[in-house]
Structure formats: C-alpha cells, structure tokens
Amino acid sequence: MTGMKKAYETFCKVEETLVKVFLMGIVVFVFSSAIFRTIGSPLNWAVDMSMLFFAWMVFLGADVAMRHTELVNVDLFFRRFPDKAQMGIYLLWQVLILAFLGMLVAYGVPLTIESSKRLFQTMTISYSWATLSVPVGSVLMMVTTVIKIVRTWTTKTIGRGGAGECC
Fold first, then answer.
1. Considering the domain boundaries, does residue 28 fall inside one?
2. Structural domains counted in the chain
3. What is d(CA 58, CA 5) in angstroms, rounded to the nearest whole number?
C-alpha cells in the first residue's frame, strides 16, 4: 500500500504542477496576443491555445481543490447537527458528488468522441483534446471523492483537507 500511496502523492504533485503551468500559459498567451494585436500582428492561435489550457486547468484544478479543501460546504448550517448526523450528511453529500461526476463522465465521453472531427479555428488539432478534460477531470475527482469517503468511513471523522494533503 505504501508504494501505491507514494505513486498517488507523485501524481498529485504532477497534477498541481500542470495546473500551475496551464495558468501561467494562459496568462502568457493572452498577454502576448494582446501585445501582438496592438502592434498589428495578431497571434490568433494563442486564443485557441488558451482555451485548451483553460479547459484542462479547470478540471485538474477542481480535483486539486477537492483534495485540499471542502469545495462545497455550508459550514454554518452543517455544524448545528450532532456528530453522527454530520457524518451521515457528509457521506451522503460525497455520494451525490460521485453521482454528478459519473454523469459528467457519461456525457463527457460521447462529447469527446463527437468533437473529434471539429478542429480549433487556428490549429490543426482536434477540439476533442479540450473536451477530453471533462471525463478525465471527472474521473480524477471521483478518485479523490472515493478516497475521502474511505478515509471518513475508516477514521469515523470528517476530513477537512489541508495544504499538502494528498491521500
């Protein structure tokens, strides 16, 4: 199990690095595009590349956010319940998240296949590279959610996440 945990921790670091690279890429592409447009030589491909990076940054970033924090939580309301009720609500909420993510995968895969013939306007790559972020990111968030459910079930405490927490 330690080898699997180590591999997952490495994956988490790679994922976080990718999110940072995508964000920085978007900033560079949009800024460069604006500068070059101002001087009369627009970089039309930069907008498409930004859209591609944005799609992946959103879904990978959502997985990172789910791992580090309680992404969706109404704490003021939640804390008024007894501990056992909090546990039940928390686990129910995680199951609902799993169901929603499952629907994103179920609809995202056909969308990716359908988008395979569509190309970005200025690049010769398929738009399915952008739409693939939906099912891939959703599967990654499902893994994160299952880890949270298992951890909560085995420790009988609701994990609050935290900086650096991976698994």
1. yes
2. 1
3. 25
